[in-house]
Here is the input.
Amino acid sequence: MDFRLTPEQEALKREFEEFFKEEMKKAPPGWSGSMESMFSEEGFPFHRQMAKKLAEKGWLVRPWPKEYGGQDAPIIEQLIFSEVLGYYRGAGVDIFGVGMLGPTLLAAGSEEQKREHLPPIARAERFWCQGWSEPNAGSDLASLTTRAVRDGDDYIINGQKIWTSGAHHADWMFMLARTNPEEKRSRGLSFFLVDMKTPGITIRPLYSMEGSHLFNEVFFDDVRVPAKNMVGEENQGWAITRATMNFERSNVGQMSGLKRDLEELVEFCKETKWNGKTLAQNPFVRHQLAQLAIEIEAGRAMSYRIAWMQEKGGLLMTAHAASAAKVYGSELAQRFAYTGYEIMGLYGQVKKGSKWAPLMGRFESDSQLCMGMNIAAGTSEIQRNLIAWVGLGLPRTI
Here is the structure.
């Protein structure tokens, strides 16, 4: 594998960089590029405005077929875009609609579903959320209990979803519901597309421990969903869900974001003195920074390898590699947050908004939020199981 870019790809990367470097100057105060800032009341209007600009440039869904709003661009060009987006803490990409549902519909949706939903995503007119987790079905998603019962041309849905990121701003939700209660686990689940304006849907906020509003719980009380909004066959939603999860995990944006964070942490260490010397002169600090730089570069190589594998053999062969990148990225981000917090000492506990908060209080916030990274989008334990079963061919039971 040769990860060097062609001259054309380098030129495309510079174009992306020039755009985000200029546009991100207009971000609201405190913008960090995180989902917490993206779905905040101040951040979401900016996020949506940026999405419109990306759509006008044709950058939002570049790998999609032209007939659905894309440019038939190769996966590597999308990876370059995501890398630049992550580095500049960019806004405008709906990770649920663009990154997960769109590719899923391209692979498993009906022609009617593609034509109804893909163009509005490509034009940044329709934002999505993900209705998977439930109070008693998070990591063990196959145990979910939300019911969908057929009634003529509709399904009637009752139940509850939780930890639904961005539901308070979403136009539509893709979700799993149990259509066959006689079947156990994943065999009785179906995949639905639900308009969030449908009567019977109630959204309640769930605030994070540092005060941000990203998560929600969503209640369904006799919600009628047209049968045509089921993706794939009845009771076959689990296979579609597994494919959807894999679209989420190339992870290059996270690595480039961490690279930017590291550059700023290094500058802080060069400028900040302790016992008469800068932190950058402290051997312990230098070792920690060097270790982070090595791990970030290793993660970036993993992401490029996944893109290479997808171009060579398609999405299915990368399931285990995507899980490996997810585990690696989640745990690296957690180590990074704790390392930055430790280097800053007591100042690392000062919240953003204070003049004493280094780097706008990023590590005070990250050290709280990072605890959920090993859970969100599939726990590290589940990912390691997938690596063992799919990648290594190990048995599921001993």
